[in-house]
Amino acid sequence: MTEIPKITLHSGKDQSPKRFHPWIFSGAVKKAPENIKNGDVVEVYSSKDEYLGTGHYQKGSIMIRLFSFEKIVPDASFWKSKIQHAFNYRKAIRLTNDANTNVYRLVYGEGDGLPGLVVDYYNGTAVIQAHSIGMYRERFQIADVLKEIYGEQLKAIYDKSKESLGVSINKLSTENGENAEVQNSYLYGSGGEKQVIENGHKLHIDWEEGQKTGFFIDQRENRSLVAQYASGKKVLDCFCYAGGFSVYALKAGAIEVHSVDSSKGAIKLTDANVALNFGQDTRQTSFLADAFDYLSNNPSKYDMMIIDPPAFAKHRDARHQAVTGYKRLNALAIKGIKPGGIIFTFSCSQVVDKYLFHGAITAAAIEAGRNVRILEYLSQPADHPISIYHPEGEYLKGMILYIE
Ligand code: SAH
Predict the structure, then answer these.
(1) Which residues, judged by CB distance below 6 Å to any ligand atom, belong to the binding site of ligand 1?
(2) What per-residue confidence (pLDDT) applies to 89?
(3) Model-level pTM?
(4) What CATH number does domain 76-188 carry, 3.40.50.970, 3.30.750.80, 3.30.457.10, 3.40.50.2300?
């Protein structure tokens, strides 16, 4: 067996891996072998030559993503045990064998001790998304493990890493002497059933053409909460994408649902999902529009609003602008909703934490000049677990507001 390349950290930089934090920043690295390549598996040692962990190397601010804090050989049986743990956890939270839900996240990166890897399960199809070159290289081993764990139940595996690896991948792989361009493709099977059920709601999911891995699985529990409030309400589902919130609201007895998104594909998907559950339902209408414009032009119509925008900030330097965006958007919603109205508002920007988001909503309430109560704080569901050692894994937060 070839030896695993060794990385040595500067003195004092061993505290973070000793506390099981999976990221080693470039500034902590004292010594790395000269021939090290992006995506290589490396072992990390302290300045006193103590073993700290094993992970994937990739040039950049986060230089090593640790997937083990015990000395291991990253072979098929290692990946099997990691992914089996992730599966067992989903089983424990009752997602793997639920007659009413056959869509869930099987692997959520650092939250599952697998930094750089996301795997979503869609009714017999696994969609893999690598966020690091190292995990991208492991994709065939991971596909084999998925087949082993699911057996007959798994009909297809789709690799959708092109978007998540970003534009830099082709440059990086050239540096590695690999010229292959990253393309999304099936690693196993082809196609598969593109319809899932979530809490008994039917949903058409398109992992090939859709955003992210195809669906925003992370809002499952918040969609159920929307259902609890929607009966008899006129509801606005703003940034509707696949129309999940709209479908839940209709099923729960909303009297009218308007779904707004600026993407044609999203509107098509929403219409398809409404039709799939209710046929021609005259209670629902979709609007292809910018949400800010729509909210400005349509005040005082709704008893309930869902505001679920895309991440306004993907990086720290965009944080201020993002907070301004959340404030402006929520001020429009709070100003516009009917007295006694309910707003579900969300942020999925990892760099805007719950305190900052809370601040933006407070500022929006002050600007709107209305009395606002907080009914509940919302978060991401348990199939998007946050490791206690990696608080950065928390990204989705929301609030239910009552507006007088
Ligand atoms: N609520 C959805 C997920 C929303 S994702 C669900 O539960 O599935 C964010 C959506 O916002 C995307 O569909 C994107 O097309 C849309 N979007 C982005 N910018 C927008 C804008 N300015 N106005 C309206 N929609 C926008």
Answers:
(1) 216, 219, 239-242, 244-245, 260-263, 266, 290-291, 308-310
(2) 98
(3) 0.95
(4) 3.30.750.80
